[in-house]
Amino acid sequence: MYATYTRRKRPDDNGPLRERAEKEFFPKLQQAPGFVSVTLIQGEDGENLAVTVWERREDAAAFQAGMQDWAQFLEQHAPQASRGQGEVITHLSTPTAKQG
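Now predict its structure.
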């Protein structure tokens, strides 16, 4: 697995950003090939952290290549503080109930 992460300055008014994310970005993300999960953390330091997990590095790159409009909108509302990416060495979640 592969992950990307971005820290952004939290906007004064999170409403427009959250609304557009729920209508446009999250549905595309959930349907993207190789998408595993996304976690958004509202930091106590005034910054938000987003961690997105993918099956493969190529899946992350392909998705990001098609999201320039979203990236521009995001940068206007919540300037980027830092970003990174790398191989996931541990990804632990609650086991799902087995169907049987």
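The mean pLDDT is 87.
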